[in-house]
Protein: uroporphyrinogen-III C-methyltransferase
Amino acid sequence: MPDQFTTTAQPMPGHVDFVGAGPGDPDLLTLKAMRAFEAADIVMHDRLISQDILDVACQTATLVDVGKAGFGPSWKQEDIDALLVEYALTGARVVRLKSGDPTVFGRLDEEIDAVEAAGISWAIVPGITAASAAVASIGQSLTRRGRNSSVRFLTGHDMQGFADHDWVALAQGGEVAAIYMGKKSARFVQGRLIMHGADRATPITLVENASRPNQRILATSLENLPVDLAAAELNGPALTFYGLAPRDAAQALTEFKKELA
Structure:
């Protein structure tokens, strides 16, 4: 009979919260995201998470950078999956912090599959995706009566390189698309759209660092996109809107804020 003071208890099972960090402004974090941070032991975060968000997340948790960079050095997805499982199996409560919303181009399914296969509980905490923050910054809406009844969320590149889409449909007048990770693929996108008959004067707007103090807006056209993009030297994360131009008042407000900075 074991001694009454001997314990054979196993560590409590861990848990993983897949949390959306939003576009970068900590004021746009959800209350549910804040509660997940407060309960977390470990926060595994992506490269594009702003420092302001990380400062909030690290109040009680250890930060682990598992950033991925398009066309550059990155953590392998299988290594991120394995680390999530490793931490959670020790009994830790893990926040997997993803930029924007984890359900939008966030490799969410692969990580859920990994933790689920290990018998670990998980939950998704949605965040404000970059398209919502960026379109708000230019004073526009993603859909508008008489202009477009749908909007496409596209990725500029995938595992094979530059991503192909339904260019024929996009080239029709009045279409709107939010292109994530689209800076490097700008010339490719321009060529495909023009090849399929898109109007060269179609407005294009890029929003760099949406919602952050260093936000910048570049308004251009399909014809001038690669040249204007190169001249602007955008270095931060940027979202590209095809078919949308900034509202004049929003552009003026952005310029005013830059003058005050």
About this structure: Confidence is low (pLDDT under 50) at residues 1-9. The first strand starts at residue 15 and ends at 20. The chain has two domains: 15-125, 130-260.
